[in-house]
Write a structure and sequence with these properties.
This protein is of the alpha+beta class. The protein is 17% helix and 35% strand. The chain has one helix at 26-37; strands at 5-11, 14-20, 46-51, 56-60. Strands 1-2 form a two-stranded antiparallel sheet. Strands 3-4 form a two-stranded antiparallel sheet. The chain is globular.
C-alpha cells in the first residue's frame, strides 16, 4: 500500500481533508506541497466543486494579491 500524506483545508464553510499519493504522483504532490508551504493557496477561492460517487474534484484559484516575484 502506498504511503500517503493528508492536507487539511480550512475554509469559511468548514474544513476538509485531501489525501495525497506521492508515490504515484511525485511531481504533482511535490509541487502542491511546495505551493502550500509558500502560502499560495491562502485566501484563494474555490469556484467549482464536483461530487463524484467516491471522490470530489475541486477547482480553485490563487490569491492574485500575493507577491509571486520571490517564488
Amino acid at each position: 500500500r502506498e504511503e500517503t500524506k493528508v492536507i487539511t483545508f480550512y475554509t469559511s464553510k468548514g474544513e476538509f481533508k485531501v489525501q495525497l499519493f506521492g508515490k504515484s504522483n511525485p511531481l504533482t504532490v511535490s509541487n502542491f506541497i511546495g505551493n502550500v508551504e509558500k502560502n499560495l493557496y491562502s485566501n484563494s477561492k474555490f469556484y467549482k466543486i464536483i461530487n463524484f460517487p467516491k471522490s470530489k474534484l475541486i477547482y480553485g484559484g490563487i490569491d492574485y494579491n500575493y507577491d509571486y516575484r520571490n517564488i
